[in-house]
Amino acid sequence: MDGQSGQLPAKPPETPGFPENPFPYVFEGFKTLNTKPIRNDVADDEMYICDGFMPIGKSNLRVLPDIGSALYTTSGSITIVSFYFANISGTPIAVVLESDGSLTQVNTVTSSATTIAAASTITTPADGIGVS
Protein backbone atom coordinates (compact mmCIF):
# COMPACT_ATOMS: atom_id res chain seq x y z
CA MET A 1 0.00 0.00 0.00
CA ASP A 2 1.28 3.47 -0.73
CA GLY A 3 0.54 4.91 2.74
CA GLN A 4 -1.64 7.85 1.67
CA SER A 5 -4.47 6.54 -0.51
CA GLY A 6 -4.44 2.94 0.69
CA GLN A 7 -3.84 1.65 -2.85
CA LEU A 8 -1.08 -0.58 -4.15
CA PRO A 9 1.66 1.29 -6.05
CA ALA A 10 1.48 1.15 -9.84
CA LYS A 11 3.55 -1.35 -11.77
CA PRO A 12 6.64 0.33 -13.25
CA PRO A 13 6.53 0.84 -17.03
CA GLU A 14 8.19 -1.80 -19.20
CA THR A 15 11.43 -0.86 -20.94
CA PRO A 16 12.20 -2.75 -24.18
CA GLY A 17 15.30 -4.93 -23.85
CA PHE A 18 15.40 -4.53 -20.06
CA PRO A 19 14.40 -7.40 -17.74
CA GLU A 20 11.02 -7.10 -16.04
CA ASN A 21 12.40 -7.45 -12.51
CA PRO A 22 16.12 -6.68 -12.65
CA PHE A 23 18.23 -7.80 -9.73
CA PRO A 24 20.77 -5.10 -8.85
CA TYR A 25 24.28 -6.14 -7.93
CA VAL A 26 25.12 -4.12 -4.85
CA PHE A 27 28.69 -4.07 -3.62
CA GLU A 28 28.72 -2.15 -0.37
CA GLY A 29 31.53 -2.16 2.12
CA PHE A 30 34.30 -2.39 -0.49
CA LYS A 31 37.54 -1.00 0.91
CA THR A 32 40.32 -1.65 -1.55
CA LEU A 33 41.99 -3.90 -4.11
CA ASN A 34 44.31 -6.45 -2.57
CA THR A 35 46.42 -8.34 -5.09
CA LYS A 36 49.18 -9.49 -2.71
CA PRO A 37 47.72 -12.68 -1.16
CA ILE A 38 46.33 -15.63 -3.09
CA ARG A 39 42.69 -15.09 -4.00
CA ASN A 40 41.38 -17.35 -1.22
CA ASP A 41 42.95 -15.04 1.39
CA VAL A 42 41.35 -11.81 0.12
CA ALA A 43 38.99 -10.39 2.76
CA ASP A 44 35.25 -10.04 2.14
CA ASP A 45 35.52 -6.26 1.84
CA GLU A 46 38.42 -6.43 -0.65
CA MET A 47 38.73 -7.46 -4.31
CA TYR A 48 41.57 -9.29 -6.00
CA ILE A 49 40.67 -8.09 -9.49
CA CYS A 50 38.47 -5.24 -10.68
CA ASP A 51 38.44 -5.59 -14.47
CA GLY A 52 36.84 -2.65 -16.26
CA PHE A 53 36.38 -0.59 -13.11
CA MET A 54 38.55 1.93 -11.29
CA PRO A 55 38.24 2.06 -7.48
CA ILE A 56 37.93 5.70 -6.42
CA GLY A 57 37.05 5.31 -2.76
CA LYS A 58 35.27 3.15 -0.22
CA SER A 59 32.25 1.46 -1.84
CA ASN A 60 32.83 3.54 -4.99
CA LEU A 61 33.83 2.13 -8.39
CA ARG A 62 33.82 3.94 -11.70
CA VAL A 63 33.45 2.27 -15.09
CA LEU A 64 36.46 2.88 -17.30
CA PRO A 65 35.26 4.38 -20.59
CA ASP A 66 36.36 3.22 -23.99
CA ILE A 67 38.89 5.54 -25.58
CA GLY A 68 37.77 5.42 -29.18
CA SER A 69 38.38 3.41 -32.31
CA ALA A 70 40.50 0.28 -32.54
CA LEU A 71 44.25 0.84 -32.37
CA TYR A 72 45.05 -2.09 -34.67
CA THR A 73 43.05 -4.68 -36.61
CA THR A 74 44.14 -7.80 -38.43
CA SER A 75 43.10 -8.93 -41.89
CA GLY A 76 41.25 -12.00 -43.10
CA SER A 77 40.88 -14.87 -40.65
CA ILE A 78 43.93 -13.85 -38.59
CA THR A 79 43.10 -12.96 -35.00
CA ILE A 80 44.98 -11.26 -32.19
CA VAL A 81 46.16 -13.85 -29.66
CA SER A 82 47.66 -11.42 -27.15
CA PHE A 83 49.14 -7.96 -26.88
CA TYR A 84 51.45 -6.11 -24.52
CA PHE A 85 52.29 -2.46 -24.05
CA ALA A 86 55.83 -1.14 -23.73
CA ASN A 87 58.02 1.88 -24.49
CA ILE A 88 60.98 2.21 -26.82
CA SER A 89 62.75 5.28 -25.53
CA GLY A 90 59.89 7.80 -25.36
CA THR A 91 57.67 6.02 -27.88
CA PRO A 92 54.73 4.03 -26.48
CA ILE A 93 54.08 0.83 -28.44
CA ALA A 94 51.91 -2.27 -28.42
CA VAL A 95 53.43 -5.63 -29.31
CA VAL A 96 50.74 -7.76 -30.98
CA LEU A 97 50.94 -11.56 -31.34
CA GLU A 98 48.72 -12.78 -34.16
CA SER A 99 47.26 -16.24 -34.71
CA ASP A 100 49.50 -16.84 -37.76
CA GLY A 101 52.60 -16.63 -35.51
CA SER A 102 53.62 -13.11 -36.52
CA LEU A 103 54.52 -10.20 -34.25
CA THR A 104 53.59 -6.61 -35.02
CA GLN A 105 54.72 -3.41 -33.31
CA VAL A 106 52.06 -0.68 -33.21
CA ASN A 107 52.89 2.91 -32.27
CA THR A 108 50.04 3.80 -29.88
CA VAL A 109 50.24 7.51 -30.73
CA THR A 110 50.26 7.32 -34.54
CA SER A 111 48.73 3.80 -34.99
CA SER A 112 51.51 2.96 -37.48
CA ALA A 113 52.24 -0.77 -37.60
CA THR A 114 55.61 -2.41 -38.25
CA THR A 115 56.18 -6.15 -38.65
CA ILE A 116 58.64 -7.43 -36.04
CA ALA A 117 58.46 -11.10 -37.00
CA ALA A 118 56.86 -12.70 -40.06
CA ALA A 119 54.12 -15.33 -40.03
CA SER A 120 55.10 -18.72 -38.52
CA THR A 121 57.95 -17.17 -36.48
CA ILE A 122 56.11 -18.10 -33.28
CA THR A 123 55.34 -21.79 -33.84
CA THR A 124 52.73 -22.11 -31.08
CA PRO A 125 51.00 -18.70 -30.93
CA ALA A 126 48.13 -20.07 -28.82
CA ASP A 127 50.64 -20.42 -25.95
CA GLY A 128 51.27 -16.67 -26.04
CA ILE A 129 54.56 -14.90 -25.40
CA GLY A 130 56.16 -13.14 -22.47
CA VAL A 131 57.22 -9.52 -22.72
CA SER A 132 59.31 -7.75 -20.11
Helix and strand pattern: EEEEEEEE
Largest sheet entry: 4 strands, antiparallel
How far from one another are the termini?
Answer: 63 Å
* Residue runs with pLDDT of under 50 for 5 or more positions: none
Beta-strand content:
25-35%
Helical content class:
under 10%
C-alpha Rg, in Å?
A: 23 Å
Structure description:
The structure is a single chain. With 132 residues, the protein is mainly β. Helices cover 0% and strands 30% of the residues. It has a 4-stranded antiparallel β-sheet, with no helix packed on it. The protein has a two-stranded parallel ribbon with strand order 1-2. It has a two-stranded antiparallel sheet with strand order 3-4. A hairpin with a 5-residue loop joins strand 7 and strand 8 (113-117). The termini are far apart. The mean pLDDT is 82.
